[in-house]
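Changelog-adjacent note: as of this version, every example in the card shows the full chain rather than a window. The one below runs 177 residues end to end.
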Amino acid sequence: MVALRELHHAKGHDPRDQLRTGQLANYDSRQLIARHRRGLERAGFNKAQMFLIGGLDGEWDAGRESYQLHHHLIAWNVPDDVLKKVIAQWPRDADRVRVRKRAQPITDLPRVIAYLDKAWWPRMHRGSADDGRLFTRKCRLPPEIECEFLTWMHANQSRDLRLWLGVKSYKGTIRRT
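Full-length structure tokens:
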């Protein structure tokens, strides 16, 4: 049994996971998930002592006309140094991806689980206010981008968009490995 206080909500943005318009239709999400799994394992992720359950997410960046894919994860017992080793391999692109990783305690587990499985990607408007502060606004995707995204989602199984590390299903019951 895992106590809520032992879980964290983690988010990982690898700047390499950017797709331009038209690239999404031919994109295989399983390759991204396999790359992230290998990166975590090389960084010292121990499946017997920790787990991650996550969902692939993305944002449409209207200013750059690109999708930015990333993961939202529920993590248990994953040391911060493992996450630091993983993102050390990722390129820096502070203009486009300001926070490459974030881990924070979970206070509302149902909300985090629902966030892992959300079925739409917002459009992001990024910019600077007159006083120099950065801002981000979310709004609905333009119809042609929404159509491309929904077509891609329809072509994928939900398991193709999941990252499971340190857990397995045994006769329909989720168990830690």
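Structural remarks: The radius of gyration is 17 Å.
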